[in-house]
Amino acid sequence: MIMMFATRLVRLLTLAAPLVLTLQIEADAQGQPAPAPRAPTYEQQQGKINAWTVGLAAGLIEGAPLRLAAEMARVVDDGDNLHVLPIVTRGPTENVNSLLYLRGIDLAIINSDSLEEYRVQFPEIRQHVTYLLSLFPSELHIFVRPEIKSLQDLAGKKVNFNTLGTAAAYSGPLIFSRLGINIEKTFIPHQVALQQMRKGEMAAVVFITSKPVDAFLRGQWEPGFKFLPVTYDSKFEDYYLPAALEAADYPALIKPGERISTIAVPTVLVSYNWPAGSDRYRRVARFTDYLFTRLDKLQVPGFDPNWKTINLGATVPGLTRFPAAQEWLQGQARKAQAKQ
306-336 pLDDT, tens per residue? Predict the structure, then answer.
């Protein structure tokens, strides 16, 4: 009797199973909560976060390159699809070292003449560094006391190049070496050096940064304090660009219609020359596409005004363009032709 009952119960359950499954599916379709998905493992989460993270060696915490890097990171951010880490470094001249040797660095902001330091010890440096775009020129400002009439008058005199790690501290002495002028170099904060200039203790200060410089706009200067002209010629063609300082830049120091010739050091966003198709190449290629496509988002109030002057097609002396950046520009040119 018991065996017969058990057999019937098994048959009943077997027949009822499809009905129970159908009811469960209908309940799920009516909004019943589904089982919670499994949380990713540590390794999976680590891989996901690192897959599209790009390291950008920017510069000193008080410098303009770090601010530009932070603004780029804001605009290209795309969650897990792209995450840029701006990194505080010892300055744009040290960033070449970071790009070449430091783990996790895909991009860097450098001054074009920073490569000069590697010409002897790393002669093939230009094969390892490519540029995405020229960010902005940093104009050379040689500001002198009234008794200084020409560059040659600075020979043997005190000239300040700001603190070590800055663009002026690296590029300034290099430029004076090319000019063939032997000066007494100092590396103290420019604010201190400008006060010494007023007292006659310093002959000149050298700024290498984008114009206009607040110190010359806001400072009150006695007659005779001025900028010296620097002629752009063959000795500067490898890294530098021609530039000028005008009355619109410094109305209290330059007369209307006057134009003081000088040179500029390109500040450049560069990448290591990663092999095409490699993981690091794909990261930089995605960054390039996002940055170039969203450049207009950087050209609105709230971001550095220099973004409005960016020319994506501008070339950089001595360097070749990152292949993905060149392909992007060529694609845009083809689209423009197709519309005509």
Answer: 899 899 998 888 889 999 999 999 999 998 8
